[in-house]
Amino acid sequence: MPGVIAFFVNILAQSNINLFEIFSTYRKFSLLVSEKDAARAYSVIGRAIAQTRKALEREKTEARTAAKKEGAKRAAKAPKQAR
To answer: Residue 81: its pLDDT value, please?
Structure first.
């Protein structure tokens, strides 16, 4: 997925955590930081992932709500069928 490594690198840079190396394969990547920054980097990245998950969940909920409202509008505009 494009931008994933950049997302994490930016998170670390904003937290003033130096990145020594990036190792990447097709499915995985690793970010090498100093031992003194390791715990803080882990925490910063963990918070970023949690915040991103919450934001994505909010977006899903908003999209579902909008779709339900749109469906209700269409149903209200649809001609009533005779019984």
So the answer is: 67
Secondary structure class of 83 (helix, strand, coil): coil
- Other CB atoms within a 10 A radius of the CB of residue 52 amount to 12
Instruction: Please state, in angstroms and as integers, the Cα–Cα distance from residue 24 to each residue in 5, 28, 29, 30, 81, following that order.
Output: 9, 6, 4, 6, 60
- Domain tally, the chain: 1
* pLDDT on residue 64: 87
Residues 9-57 have pLDDT tens digits of 999 999 999 999 999 998 899 999 999 999 999 999 999 999 999 999 9
CB proximity list for 32: less than 8 A, separation 6 or greater: 19, 20, 21, 22, 23
Domain interval for residue 60:
4-76
Q: Report the CATH number at residue 20.
A: 3.30.70
